[in-house]
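Quick question, first post here. What does this chain look like in 3D?
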Amino acid sequence: MLNELERIFQPEKFSLSERGLIEVGPDAWQDCQANHSAVLSKNDANAARDILDKAAYKIKEADVVIFTLGLTEVWKDNETGLILNHPPNKRYIEKMPKRFSFFNSTFSKTKKALLDCIQLLENFVKPDIKIILTVSPVPLGMTFNQEDIIVANNYSKSQLVTVAREICSEFKNVDYYPSYEIVMNSPFQSTWKEDRSHPKLDVIEAVIERFIKLYFDDNQNTVLYSAK
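> Answer (accepted):
Ran it through. Tokens below.
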């Protein structure tokens, strides 16, 4: 998320060769900052990045920004400095072993990245912009740590919830919406799909319905700023 905000608000700092696209073969490029992006020709990859950038620039008009924190295990492109939005293909890691590195973010690094996001929004959008933090209940699909994935997932989610709650306590314009807690404390069989990773549609709808009731005025359809 910080990468995308820096693209918008600090382009002089975010000067990347090839816009962060990774050349993985002859006229074969991938944007690993775009989640689950396909391998495309250079022209198509740039066109896709144009669409993403255009959508991201809309944040300049925002009154409210919602950050959903997902996981702490990340891969870094050592050539560009980008934190990748999804892991590079194993073939790319083997082909370019020095280009990519894995790390599991710490509490302090995660908090700093989120604080940097907030600072950019307050500096370049509006000082009192409303920010809502949530944590995704969807667990890790894999782990790159040498430990059981349940342990790795618990570390990741616990850290993100703690970071979000601590930042919420430090900023009057930042709220924490407990979508993670709502899902995780609901009856298991009626909450999760068969893959045991994704909540059922009616559970998602219930989380969103509660969010709307909490934050929106039914008459004016505007966000309420007193829902701390």
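Strands lie at 22-25, 28-30, 64-69, 73-77, 100-104, 130-135, 174-176.
Residues 223-228 have pLDDT under 50 and may be disordered.
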